[in-house]
Amino acid sequence: MASTSAPLNLTPEAMADILRQVRRIEIRTHRLVSSLAAGPYRSAFRGQGMAFEEVREYVAGDDVRSIDWNVTARAGSPFVKVFREERELSTFLLVDISGSMRFGAIPGISPRAKLHLAAEAAAVVAITALRNNDRIGLVTFTDRTEVHVPTRKGRGHVTRVLREVLASQATSRPTDLAHALDELAHVARRRAVCFLISDFLFTSGADDGRFANSLARASRRHDVVGLRVSDAAEAQLPSGSSPLVLESPEGKEMGVFANGTHARAAYAKAWQAARASVETAFRAADCDLVDLETGESAFSALSRFFRERRRRVHG
Asked: For residues 87-97, b (16+ Cβ closer than 10 Å) or e, as one string?
């Protein structure tokens, strides 16, 4: 069952700290996104919807498919329908807060947790949408919907969205990306731009192709963009020959992993295969996938993406 309220188990001190974080992110991001809002973001997602504006007489060169045959029959001469591009976008953030998003913030190895990077990426999108007077909505999820904030406009609403993301505590619950995308069908009645923010780590056997199928369905109605957060320390096991005690990133299972050259190679191969399967799903659905690293600014990566996409859109 989707919740529409902030987590209630936070102490006043914890909530005050979250509000300070929201304020810092807002100040930093507001300075950065002015250049994005001025062009790359809007033009990258143009044509999300067309609204009927008027009918007028047909002139040479008009697309015959736009002829309004009812008006034409009444007037005795051809008339065409004129549409205008809807200036307002509806943008949804689907943010993964499952157990594997806790990874990171390891002194000397990893600068911050993946969930913190996800919050920064959400802030860049939300504040850019605010600058464009667009509506923004939020769903945080694990293998279920944790919080749903319906789409609205305004600075106060964006502050609430950021507060909800930052207040999210990554749990030990697993990821169900198919559920998150299917939830989009319920919460977004009109065509929307959807940013799916996740590390895309899930048990492929348990998924059994559900994610790829749900992504393909969602992409037929919405513009889905994947923001894949990762940490360099996840890509390979630490060097050495001593056995490693590993814990499942989304659960309480633990096991001993026989470390060594062959074991590290097998791990690296499995890691790359898992990433490749996600990339295959996005290509098949004709959706964009953007990689975000915990050691890099989310703004930098998203800025590059918006500009690259604008070039594609405009040819």
From this structure: eebbbbbbbbb
Residue-wise pLDDT tens digits, 215-254 = 999 999 899 999 999 998 888 877 766 676 666 666 666 6
What percent of the chain is helix, strand and coil (3-state, nearest 5)? 45, 20, 30
Region of residue 215 (left: phi > 0; alpha: psi -120 to 50; beta: else): alpha
- Which of 59, 83, 78 has its CA nearest to residue 67? 78
Helix (H, G, I), strand (E, B) or coil at 87: coil
Question: Is there a contact between 219 and 193 (Cβ–Cβ < 8 Å)?
Answer: no
Q: Rounded to whole angstroms, what are the CA distances from 208 to 87, 173, 264, 277? A: 39, 18, 26, 12
Give the separation between CA 107 and CA 86, rounded to whole angstroms: 47
Which of 186, 188, 217 is CA-nearest to residue 281? Answer: 217
Residue 307 lies in a domain: yes
Q: Which of 114, 127, 189 is nearest to 155 (CA)?
A: 127
Query: Do 199 and 168 sit in the same domain of this protein?
Result: yes
pLDDT in tens, 57-85: 888 878 787 888 888 998 899 988 876 55
pTM exceeds 0.85 for this model = no
- Same domain? For 198 and 308 the reply is yes
Question: Residues 199, 106, 273, CA angle at the centre, nearest 5°?
Answer: 35
Domain range holding 39? 12-43+89-231+286-313
Q: Which of 125, 105, 107 is nearest to 115 (CA)?
A: 105
Q: What is the largest CA-CA distance in the chain?
A: 87
Residues 142 and 201: their CA atoms lie apart, in Å, by 11
| Cβ-based burial of 191 (10 A; exposed 0-12, middle 13-18, buried ≥19) | middle
Residues 78 and 158 in one domain: no
